[in-house]
Amino acid sequence: MKDQVTSIEQPLRLVDGKFMLGDIKPEIGNPKQIALLQKIERERTQREKDANDGRLDVYIHVEDIKYKVVCEFRCICGNKIQERGINYTDVWEELEYPVYEDGPIICNKCHREYEIDGLHAKLIKR
Q1: Which residue has the higher pLDDT, 21 or 44?
Q2: How far lies 5's CA from each of 2, 8, 23, 32, 98, in Å?
Q3: Quick one: how far is CA 5 from the chain centroid?
Q4: How far apart (Å, rounded) are the C-alpha atoms in residues 3 and 41?
Q5: pLDDT of 124 strictly over 50
Q6: In this structure, how many other beta carbons lie within 10 angstroms of the beta carbon of residue 95?
Q7: Distance of CA 49 to the CA centre of its chain
């Protein structure tokens, strides 16, 4: 009895070309099956019409964006430091405020180490 109650709550659907209603397979000739097939056919016909008219909706998004980040500042000793890193994202909005994520930066003149936090460099004490 519980299976019948569960099947009433779940809509009729096609799964791998077979009619499914919950966990119970409905019988052939069921009016719900016919209605479902008609609905699927109407949707398919509409998609075909839209495609022929050049109006079939598509979903376009970005993913796996690879971008270069350049971090520049002057060391305490006056040396100009410029380091590059490569970042990855799936959200293009992150490109507006890039973050340097490649670890500490070391001045090649005085060997001071800096940690980059957002838009600031902090000297790492030894």
Answers
A1: 44
A2: 5, 5, 11, 17, 53
A3: 37
A4: 29
A5: yes
A6: 13
A7: 30
